[in-house]
Amino acid sequence: MYRRNIFHILLPLALCLGVFTTYHLFVKDLSPATPEAPAPVVDSAPSPSIPIVSQAPARPTDEELKQARAIDPAVIPDTPSSQLLEAVRDEIERKNFTVAERRLANLPPSLLSDAKAKPYIAILWNNLGLEQERIDGTKASVKAFKKAAALDSANPVIQLNLAHAYWELRDPALNQDFLTALTSLAPNEPFPHLAMADLLYDQDHLTEAAAHLAEATERAGKDPRVQSYLAAVTAKVRHTDAVESRMHARNSAHFMVKYDGAEDHGTWTTVLEILEEAYRDIGQRFSHFPAKPIVVVLHTKDTFQSATGSPAWADGLYDPVLGRIQIPTQGATTDTQWLTHVLRHEYVHALLHDRLEGQITSLPVWLNEGLAMQLAGDPWPDLDQAMPNGGSVIHLKYLEGGWGQLPQNAATLAYLEANSATHYLIERFGMSRVAELLNAFKAKATVATALQDKIFLSYDQFHQQWLDTFLHKHS
Ligand SMILES: [Zn+2]
Q1: Ligand 1: centre distance to CA 56 (Å)
Q2: What is the CATH code of the structural domain delimited by 62-235?
Q3: How far is the CA of 405 from the centre of ligand 1 (A)?
Q4: Residues ≥6 apart with Cβ < 8 Å to 273
Q5: Could you tell me which residues come within 8 angstroms of residue 153 by beta carbon, excluding any fewer than 6 positions away?
Q6: Contact indicator for 415, 399 with CB cutoff of 8 Å
Q7: Distance from the alpha carbon of residue 395 to the mean position of ligand 1, in angstroms
Q8: Which residue, of 93, 243, 248, 409, is most buried by count of CB atoms within 10 Å of its CB?
Q9: Does the pLDDT value for residue 103 go beyond 90?
Q10: Residue 267: its pLDDT value, please?
Q11: For residue 282, what are the CA distances in angstroms to 260, 268, 296, 369, 432?
Q12: Domains of the chain: which residue ranges?
């Protein structure tokens, strides 16, 4: 039924936006005789929503954000114990890091209080930390950076290295006091401003966040890619700030709901009840609860598109840059059943984003959407019901990137497949294995590696086994 070569259409697509279609529309789409569907409409029937993750400008990697980080240890300060320091330096150069760390930890107190020796010992800890990070990652290096930073609070390179380590570990020690001190210590660095903006929009202080992002953009001249990313995010935060500044906000234990237009306590209450229920219910199934309150913005139907920059047919999306669920509503007239599906679906995207701690791009879209559909209880039909005569499926490996530009019938198939493959994954391997897969993606594993390591199947084997169960149901 489906063209076999459908994946040729999919390959060049990299954008990711949400689309929404009704049950009727996508059932019609599955028939090849049906002409192109018109722009989807929201009707009052229980409808499977396909709102997805909004497009994010590619965030610079941690490596791109880091500036020159090693400090030349050539000149050893002239102290009575300089040969001790020289010995440590040589151990680091010979890559005997365990020995170097032991020697550093056992330096005599007299040397540690020597004003000339202290900054040099800080450099040695710093350089040891960089080596440990290279070999074993940030968790292994943060202790050395902390030692270095404590010994020399005035060295900007050392303080920046500690800040990067805190950032990668999401350590609450990267707080506003620390960052304020860092901005005056390293006034030309973009990173402290970027980190400050992150803290500020977590607290929903968008105006201040935008100001710091602008500062970061100005200072990112060394790297055009970082600069254009920052400029894009600055514009986005400013726009969001302008849109949301006139909104009302109301908090529950785990959410902040912003409402566009006249105060409508009825809708607020309904939305918060749905969200708190999703928090408990999906959190338990998924064994994860977000660390921070999640912002949910309710737009009126006619402002949703301009506020979120989404296409006319988008209907609800999760914005990973600002960490917001965005939903169009029609006040008290909004269909509660529809609202429940969309909110729960978007909540899973938000939960996955929190769970992966910023590594959301490692998660294949088919699994991101599939989990949202499975955990939200979206009322989609099974793939085999939707394709009663068989037909070609798209290999999951072509459904890893964004789906925003898919033609509607291909998008529908993509969602059906995501739902079906994720259902198979959960049924066959259990949620605990799914959790292990997520851990692998958090550690930046590829899909093939994650599947091989966590469920002991190659990508093709997994795909074939899923397809076999699907085809068996047919025969
Ligand atoms: Zn989605």
Answers
A1: 14
A2: 1.25.40.10
A3: 14
A4: none
A5: 159
A6: no
A7: 19
A8: 409
A9: yes
A10: 80
A11: 27, 21, 17, 15, 14
A12: 6-34+358-474, 62-235, 248-355
